[in-house]
Amino acid sequence: MQKRLLYLLLPLLAILTACDLEKDIDVDLPYHEPQLVVECYLEPGKQIRASVLESSGYFEAPTPPMVPDAEVFVTTPAGKRVQLKYKPLMIKSTGRFYTHTSTEIMNGKPGQVYQLEVTDGKGRKVTGFTIVQPKVPIDEVEWKFNDKDKAYLLTSFYDDANTANYYRYMTHIDSLSGGSDRDFVTSDELTNGKRVSYGSAYDYEENDTLIVTLYHIEQQYYDFISSVSDAKDANGNPFAQPSKIKSSVEGGFGIFTNLAYDRKTVIIRK
Fold first, then answer.
1. Which InterPro entries does this one have (predicted)?
2. pLDDT recorded at residue 223
3. Beta-strand relationship, 36-42 and 253-258
4. Is the pLDDT of residue 80 over 80?
């Protein structure tokens, strides 16, 4: 009889204990000081464009506010100070959004330096610089089918042994405007001076159109992308170490860099 009574009381004790564990806690979050967030990627042969936004608190609207009074200047290697006008637009072919643009075409040569300066009506100022990288050509793009009619992709290039190099590799299916099929950054720490090959799983089918891009990037861009990836992985993960984004600019958040790349489009055929 006592044993039966104990079994009946255990669920009740569990409920009472759980109720005692519930407690409302008020957390005082630190004040968030809004800062300028700048992204500017210089592409050879294309107009100079930038995106200037303002950071917001964790519980505020997910879309960062724009900064219409921001003034953006890019100084070329020749010393020409180019002002980018506030003119928000979306580029459909790539899906990129810009707030400031100029008719000036980026035509810098490897080793040359571009400088960035952004100011606004609140007295905030962001500065940065980028050193133009040489393009690293893709040597070969090949594929092979397995017995299930699925193909893997292999992209190869030669690394320069005389410098420390950083790369971003991306593949898109059909168009650059959609999300990438593959996207990662790496260094030549283990492949210095070697022929490097990036492979994939057996993910592709006959007649798939693939756009393959190899970016030769600066270390500051490599660090920026790596830190953004770490921050995404840590978000909402109680076991991950909090990660801080490594900006390449001073006075705010963001990245100012140039995009030197080689790109090939292939159609998977047997």
1. DUF4249
2. 97
3. parallel
4. yes
Q: What is the pLDDT of residues 121-144, one digit of tens each?
A: 999 999 999 999 999 999 999 999
Domains of the chain: 36-131 (2.60.40.10), 138-240+260-267 (2.60.40.10)
Average pLDDT of the residues of the chain: 88
Whole-number pLDDT of residue 41: 97
Model confidence, pTM: 0.83
Q: How confident is the model at residue 229, as a pLDDT? A: 85
Cα–Cα distance for residue pair 115/132, rounded to 1 Å = 11
Using alpha carbons only, give the angle 80, 86, 90 rounded to the nearest 5 degrees. Answer: 110
Separation between Cα atoms, residue 162 and residue 145, nearest integer Å: 36
Beta carbons within 8 Å of 66's beta carbon, 6+ residues apart: 52, 53, 54, 88, 99
Quick one: average pLDDT of 234-254? 76
β-pairing verdict for 81-91 and 125-131: unpaired
Which whole-number Å values give the CA distances from 264 to 139, 144, 171, 267, 269, in the listed order? 10, 17, 10, 10, 15
pLDDT for res 232: 75
Alpha-carbon dihedral angle through residues 230, 231, 232, 236, given to the nearest 10 degrees = 120
| Gap between the Cα atoms of 25 and 27, Å rounded | 6
